[in-house]
């Protein structure tokens, strides 16, 4: 049960919570901007990879802000992919767990 909570419940709950929090910021003219929502929801999952490639050093203030924004965008894209992978992994683990429990019930 601990493994199920770690692999299924936690990632799905985190994704739903992040979508609920960031959804109001992504509404434009009554429609949701899905790209912005994907970047914002993925940012916490990619935050550790944001300053991996480009460290803002030796730039003026405009260059530093530009590099930081570029890092946040890269972190959001990478985090969105990581989140999608974790959700697919959670779905696969859920199906595997349900199949295993059905097989155990049939064997009895």
Structure description:
The chain has 108 residues and is mostly helical. The protein has one domain (2-107). Helices cover 75% and strands 4% of the residues. It contains 3 helices and 2 strands; from the N terminus they run αββαα. The chain has helices at 2-22, 34-46, 61-107, and strands at 27-28, 31-32. The chain has a two-stranded antiparallel ribbon. β1 (27-28) and β2 form a beta hairpin. α1 (2-22) packs across α3 (61-107) and α2 packs across α3 (61-107). It is elongated and about 70 Å long. The two termini are 21 Å apart. The model has no long low-confidence stretch (mean pLDDT 86).
Number of helices: 3
The ordered H/E elements are HEEHH
Low-confidence stretches: none
The tally of strands reads 2
Strand content: under 5%
The coarse silhouette is elongated
| Mean pLDDT reading | 86
Side-by-side strand order of the widest sheet: 1-2
Query: How much is the radius of gyration in Å?
Result: 19 Å
What is the end-to-end distance?
A: 21 Å
């Amino acid at each position: 049960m601990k493994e199920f909570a770690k692999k299924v419940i936690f990632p799905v709950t985190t994704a739903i919570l992040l979508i609920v929090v960031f959804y109001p910021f992504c509404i434009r003219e009554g429609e949701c901007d899905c790209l912005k929502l994907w970047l914002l929801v993925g940012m916490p999952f990619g935050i550790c990879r944001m300053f991996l490639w480009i460290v803002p050093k030796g730039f003026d203030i405009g260059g530093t802000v530009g590099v930081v924004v570029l890092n946040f965008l890269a972190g959001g894209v990478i985090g969105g992919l990581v989140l999608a992978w974790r959700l697919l992994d959670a779905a696969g683990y859920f199906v595997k767990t349900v199949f295993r429990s059905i097989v155990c019930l049939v064997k009895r």
